[in-house]
Amino acid sequence: MNYSQVTSCICIPKAILLQPKTNWTSSKPGNERRAGHWTHVPRNVNMEGLRSGYLFPEISIREHEHIQKNPNARLIRLGIGDTTQPIPDIITTAMAEHADALSTTRGYRGYGAEQGNMELRMAIAETLYRGTGVKGNEIFVSDGAQCDISRLQMLLGSNVKVAVQDPSFPAYIDTSVIVGQSGKLEDKTGKYSDIVYMNCGAENNFFPDLSTTPRTDIIFFCSPNNPTGSAASWQQLEQLVDFAKRNGSIIVYDSAYAAYISDESPRSIFEIPGAKEVAIEISSFSKFAGFTGVRLGWTVVPEELKYSNGFPVIEDFNRIVCTCFNGASNIVQAGGLACLSRDGYQAVCNVVDYYKENAKILVEAFASLGLKVYGGKNAPYVWVHFPGMSSWNVFNEILEKTHVVTVPGRGFGPGGEEYIRVSAFSHRENMMEASLRMKKLFR
Amino acid sequence: MNYSQVTSCICIPKAILLQPKTNWTSSKPGNERRAGHWTHVPRNVNMEGLRSGYLFPEISIREHEHIQKNPNARLIRLGIGDTTQPIPDIITTAMAEHADALSTTRGYRGYGAEQGNMELRMAIAETLYRGTGVKGNEIFVSDGAQCDISRLQMLLGSNVKVAVQDPSFPAYIDTSVIVGQSGKLEDKTGKYSDIVYMNCGAENNFFPDLSTTPRTDIIFFCSPNNPTGSAASWQQLEQLVDFAKRNGSIIVYDSAYAAYISDESPRSIFEIPGAKEVAIEISSFSKFAGFTGVRLGWTVVPEELKYSNGFPVIEDFNRIVCTCFNGASNIVQAGGLACLSRDGYQAVCNVVDYYKENAKILVEAFASLGLKVYGGKNAPYVWVHFPGMSSWNVFNEILEKTHVVTVPGRGFGPGGEEYIRVSAFSHRENMMEASLRMKKLFR
């Protein structure tokens, strides 16, 4: 695979671009001729430590090959969790009006606060954190959760020890590798030597056994979980906060899927008393309001959270935000504010309900085949167990025989083996059709 | 100063929030009561190395104090370079239409490519890099130059040696400190021990003496320069590229003000033959199209640029962009594309011309007072010399006697002493009024 071909071809799914080219020294003849000059700048050793066979690119390659082999097949993509439903027009109208106003003397705005417009920060606090004690000035508006994960890693630096759920969303580990926290990738286990992997499988109800979990500085914890779809209960989060407090750890809590919670599970770590002393929360408008391409998120850093020397974490995070970021787009922030208005909030909840109904259809389809199915109730992801089987083999079989793209659980870490993740982000007719195909394949 | 008061008060200029609170252990009584729990997570030593008395916060504090003392004065802010003129409606309409379309099944878009829409990448290549050999796939669209500087620093890591112009835009050094490249701040010189400061003053025509400049891995170089307003000539940039090539260095070229060039100076480092083997270019729509609050920029990483082991830098940067970023807002990218249409480009150039006329007014005002004035011709900043005087004293005198906010040159590094920077980003009437007040003060 040739890098320049990949990046200049817009028809190939974006994720393919993630993959470093392994045969880079022997590629294009044209490049070789020009490649006479090498600088003396050393490649960052941390970058060398990143896995070369990354999950989503590998899926995209297989998807691409499948399309080549089956040009007439109607592919259904339930792999990457990408929203598909239109944004309610009360929200798009707010953004369009803000954009239009920028052409007027009265409506023009230059730089905003790096931390976000205070009106939006207050609205997030009042709408999504009511009763938790989280205040507007503790909310930092961003261009998305993934971006904030890397800014948090810049904040923390290389000298902290990190734990992640296994399986987990790859960005926690990858950014950990980039800033130099991870140690080496061990071929045998598929794990980085200095990262603690907290197994979260069906056997422990997708919640780590904290009695055997070693102390780390940082605990990345995603609930509702990507990929397992499991939401931690109030009691489980209480245990987690207690564990962090006893160990002097900081929980980095990812609540990007909180809007999908249907039961009594907390939607924020800050519903747990004492969490403000031990946790940071990262969240997003992406899956909550269909803002995957619009880009808006936020991070909560409580004033109570202190480093080991008593210095408030919020002050360093504020400095990072002001130095490494320059605020989310003012047009997009106007949309975020509209999402939190009474009518806007109702409208986005209706879209979330649509995806939740999709998830229900997937759960029923797989369950009807006698398979163990997890997730889907509190999350837009369904996590299906194929005991004793390789998740890549299951992925391949489903792709080949049904033309449905899923994600092999192994891609989220060793703990995802034997599982596949199926996304509920799609149009309803795709969901029905995919369910039918699955039933034909596995019946 | 109390952090929570600052961040919850939107009337205080944003930059004030940059300043770490120095007396944080003895602040709010309420906080002290709650501050029972300190985690055991060490504060990142790099964050401790950041200057506490940062430029813009200090200015904001003085501005704030001045307003308190002079509540009836009409303050004119020519400090922070923030655009003030409306965005041409051909561009805002494109953004509004894109936003509106997101509420339709046909127009909805989820995740885009992390690198940006290929149509926009191609348009940047064709409009702004014609004839340089820069291709669309070498352009990475971002949410702004400042954000890309920090992503580049994540890419480079702690094990590189860095040179900056002195004076220079503070973000290069601050991000260098955050990733651990800088060494310690030396009180005596005001310089970080491991950073090379390349003096750029009137005596060397604002271009460093490369014959005495030690080799570094990275050379941050901003042209047209912020703060001096000086644009490097073709011959100077040819020298710089040659210097980088001989030393095996990488130039990180910041061309955020390229649209302001009036003479024959290159608008991109890639106009210089051979630059693709030694340079990365960071640029922005902020000052070019009034997108300071809208947020859009780009970085060019040529395929020819290689690390010391021959590995292409573009592949690692691509990985960083895909892991630490998730693409610029699709609404905003639609605006960027409109800026590069024939009519859009003409419209934004007209706004640039407006600010250039402002700069001319400033240059004439200061020159008429017998002061040495630099910049203004190829940049929206005017750099005024007050020989033998402290730049902070000049700043204070101007503020107190004319109610005009400028920036003391010392804030951009030791090499900025004796100078002030005056921004041309303002309404015309402010420019005229500020000129009048200066003439009264210094005549």
UniProtKB/TrEMBL annotation, chains A, B:
Q: Which domain of life is it from?
A: Eukaryota
Which key words tag this protein in UniProt? Answer: Aminotransferase, Pyridoxal phosphate, Transferase
Aminotransferase class I/classII large domain location, by residue?
75-433
- Transferase among keywords: yes
Q: What is this protein called?
A: Aminotransferase class I/classII large domain-containing protein
Concerning InterPro entries, the annotation shows: Aminotransferase_I/II_large, DapL/ALD1, PyrdxlP-dep_Trfase, PyrdxlP-dep_Trfase_major, PyrdxlP-dep_Trfase_small
Under Pfam families, the record lists:
Aminotran_1_2
Q: Which family does it belong to?
A: Belongs to the class-I pyridoxal-phosphate-dependent aminotransferase family. LL-diaminopimelate aminotransferase subfamily.
The species this protein belongs to is: Populus tomentosa
What are its cofactors?
Answer: pyridoxal 5'-phosphate
- Record GO terms (molecular function): pyridoxal phosphate binding; transaminase activity
Give the NCBIfam families listed for this entry.
DAPAT_plant
Annotated GO biological processes are: systemic acquired resistance, salicylic acid mediated signaling pathway
